[in-house]
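Title: Request for sanity check on Methyltransferase FkbM domain-containing protein prediction

Description:
We are preparing a figure and want to confirm that the structure record we downloaded matches what your pipeline produces today. Could someone re-run it with the sequence below and paste the raw structure tokens into this thread? We only need the token string, no images.
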Amino acid sequence: MRRHFFPLVFSFLVFFQSLPLSANNSKADFISHYSANPEKKAGPYFTRVIRTLSCPDSDYIPKVDNAGQIIQHKGKPVQVMHNGIMIHLHSYCEGKRWNTRWMTDLIEGLSGHHEPQEEKAFYEVVKTLKPGSTMLELGSWWAYYSMWFNKTVTGAKNYLVEPNKINLALGRANFELNSMQGDFNYGYLGDKVDQGIGGIDFDAPKTSVDAFLKTKNISFLDVLHADIQGGELKMLWGAHESLKAHKIHYIVLSTHGAEIGIGEANLHQKCLSYLNEHNYHIVCQHTTRESCSVDGLIVARAKSIPGLEHIDLTKYNYNW
């Protein structure tokens, strides 16, 4: 018996090391495995992936058993997010345009998350919403937050705006993958800051939040989510009437700025000031420097409407 022991152990170790990283039981194992991989370490997003993986903010959010894993669905590879939502593989920040699978790795290592701070905030916001709530996502791309909203809120109404036709199609495909319905719109509500691949098409039509809500006959918006690559302040200007009348309950805003090469200087603070001027309570916020995943974040609530007072977020001091 003893002479068979070493080959058996060796075979097990080879099998164990060949498993997907998420199968190695813990995030710490994933980080250790990832950091020891020379190819990953040489990649352009290695530092960002490690910093994001190290953030604990999304750890407490409930997860399905196969969260983060790549599976086959109707003959196609898909990745499972924390709540069971499926996304087409490489449908966000990957594929031929990037020639890397860094986001797939990140989602795998975080068991179905990709930006822990913002996802903690969104999780807490969505928990408070009533059936039939409405969400508008600007810069929707893969439509992840809209799908999360749709899955969580009974009778959810989803409106999505994306200024890149390729990305718009990816978001629509992810909705279809999960048998969800949404109102998809080509265009942008902000400034044309992020041009080129992955950004705003030069021919994308421009509108404003106020005009969009009127066109769609939306009298009240429960969540406005925006990740629009430096156009956030001008987007808020275009929402002036809706903000003034508190027709938007929660705003979940990814912020950028000159410090990360996207947008104007002090953009985060300017957005905070504008929301304060419109009598919005800041539920949580962090700057780009305090972020584990580059983008800053502001979550604000109309003071006239009851809701969340505060969400604790881990904050860092990173020079991106």
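Thanks, this matches our download. The CA atoms of residues 290 and 316 lie 4 Å apart.
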